[in-house]
Design a protein that fits this description.
mainly alpha; 0% strand; globular
């Protein structure tokens, strides 16, 4: 049964069938092969979606789209440029820093790609940067959307592996800052080497002026994350608060968001949310069937027998997740693999929150690696460039993130220090 399910799913991927449909078809084949009743599919798909924390996903997507349309994104770009735009290569560094700030309220890498890429890719091209390099940079920087909390994949891992979402959020700051810093240092050095960006500081605002202009935009992460860690509202409720805040700022304060714009924003958000929820429903059914067949237990025993130490286990898992992330969408991979791998990691003494960060950062790499990197497709749409032209520029960025992943994997305190400090009180 399991072999038939996997073959069907992989065949769907090979034939360019959508991820959700491929997973669902594999699950249907599994039901038929095990002679189970098809009503199981309805029950388990409903159970996969019937989780309160999942309500945060459509709200965070809507908040990101409201920020893009309501002028919040542009002000964040001006603020980031005022901080780092004065050096050679400052414009690419602005891209990374803006994505980091935007990620603190959007929770989605695709939303970050569209919202920030629509502003910065044309600016980078105008400043003389190759369109393909600018696109690769934007796709990589937008990956921070799922690493800096709040993060949709962290919510999914928390639900799937029964781990505190609040702890995952606070543990995500260390890895997020590490990757952001590494990317900024890399693009600064690369621009120095190439001789790009000598005039990146032209036309930038002063720090005080940019901060004042972006004050309401910068207050948004403080409200959302401060409310979560202050115990005022849950991460799920924070998603709704972020929507309300973006709506008020865009409509009333900045007045760049109109009632007419809301129709397009809502339509775009509904479509994005429906795609993710459809993946979750199908992946939930798939995970139920392979769990019923004893696959997780078998994998756990194999890993325990083959990888005798935590260090080898983490290395093996990272290698496997990197390959899996290239072919399976991040949300689906977390929902399917989270319940399987988290107990095995616990057996090796790996903290479940630390392991969640490893999974999220690793699988987020799948968003910028062919053939199914969603950030790549998004940035190709924004920059109007073909995927094959971007790939060669991606390799250095992927290597930088991989190096950060190894640090995150083998220095657990990078993720857990803030968590332990907050939750020890």
């Amino acid at each position: 049964m399991t072999a038939a399910m996997l073959v069907t799913m992989l065949l769907g991927f090979a034939l360019s069938v959508s991820v959700a449909v491929s997973i669902g078809l594999g699950a249907v084949v599994g039901i038929q092969a095990s002679h189970a009743h098809m009503l199981i599919s309805v029950k388990e798909m409903f159970n996969a979606l019937n989780k309160f924390p999942l309500a945060a996903i459509p709200f965070f997507i809507l908040a990101g789209n409201l920020m893009e349309t309501g002028g919040i994104s542009r002000r964040l770009v001006d603020f980031a440029k005022s901080l780092v735009g004065g050096v050679q290569g400052g414009l690419p560094m602005t891209c990374v820093l803006t994505c980091m700030i935007f990620a603190a309220v959007s929770g989605s890498s695709v939303a970050t790609t569209f919202a920030i890429g629509a502003i910065l890719i044309p600016a980078l091209i105008k400043a003389g940067y190759p369109v393909t390099w600018a696109s690769a940079l934007q796709a990589t920087s937008a990956e921070l959307g799922v690493i800096i909390p709040p993060s949709i994949p962290m919510i999914l891992y928390g639900v799937a592996a029964e781990v505190s979402i609040g702890e995952l959020f606070i543990a995500g700051f260390g890895p997020g800052v590490l990757i952001s810093g590494a990317l900024m240092v890399f693009v600064w050095a690369y621009c120095k080497f190439k001789g790009w960006g000598r005039h990146d500081g032209d036309g930038r605002m002063g720090v005080l002026a940019a901060t004042w202009r972006a004050a309401w935009a910068l207050l948004m992460p403080v409200v959302v994350l401060g409310g979560i860690y202050g115990g005022i509202f849950t991460p799920t409720e924070a998603a709704a608060v972020s929507v309300l805040y973006a709506l008020v700022v865009g409509l009333v304060i900045y007045r760049e968001l109109t009632l007419k714009d809301l129709v397009a924003v809502l339509r775009k958000s509904v479509i994005s949310s429906a795609v993710i929820m459809f993946i979750i429903a199908n992946a939930g059914l798939f995970a139920f069937l392979i769990t019923r067949a004893g696959v997780p237990e078998a994998i756990g025993h194999w890993l325990e027998a083959t990888l005798q130490s935590p260090h080898w286990f983490l290395l093996g898992v990272n290698a496997a997740l990197f390959v899996i992330g290239m072919f399976i969408e991040t949300s689906a991979a977390i929902i399917v693999l989270g319940p399987i791998l988290a107990p095995v990691a616990a057996h090796f003494g790996v903290d479940p929150v630390h392991f969640g960060l490893i999974m999220v950062v690793n699988l987020a790499l799948g968003m910028i690696t062919p053939p199914f990197g969603v950030n790549l497709f998004a940035v190709c749409t924004v920059a109007k460039v073909s995927l094959d032209r971007i790939i060669r520029h991606l390799l250095p960025f992927v290597l930088v993130v991989l190096a950060c992943l190894m640090v995150i994997t083998y220095v657990p305190q990078l993720s857990l220090a803030a968590r332990d400090l907050v939750y020890a009180r």
